[in-house]
User: What shape does this take?
Amino acid sequence: MNTKTTYISKDGLDKLRAELDEMLAVRRPEIAQRIHDAKEHGDLSENAEYEDAKNEQAFVEGRIAALETMIKNATLIDEHASTDHVGIGSKVTVDIEGESQTFTIVGSAEAKPTDGRISNESPVGRALLGRKRGDKVVVKVPAGDFTYTITDIS
Assistant: This one.
């Protein structure tokens, strides 16, 4: 069983719980009904509808297990994070070769780099954690090495 801590905001935890409720109350019964209906059509060995429903059932059951684990291992992010150093929940503005970018450091369950929400487990997130305003951080990423200068933490 996975016991890895899931760092998440209160809003993110609420979304996970809502998704789990949807899976348990709606998706699981729908799939059970589809399997039941497909069984009534006779020979299961050549029944594509049955196979499709069983595959979807496997996906849904896997997602339910993952959601339950994330919720069980959830640690809420302090929304009043320190502005002295970068931590999970911090909004960090960095200068990358003359260009300014702002990231919010979040847990992996809420990461969405296109929205500026990077995981604490990503190369950039890991490199920034614990650093202070003015620090220069070299981050090794697949595209090469980049130097980030922390200009603001909020």
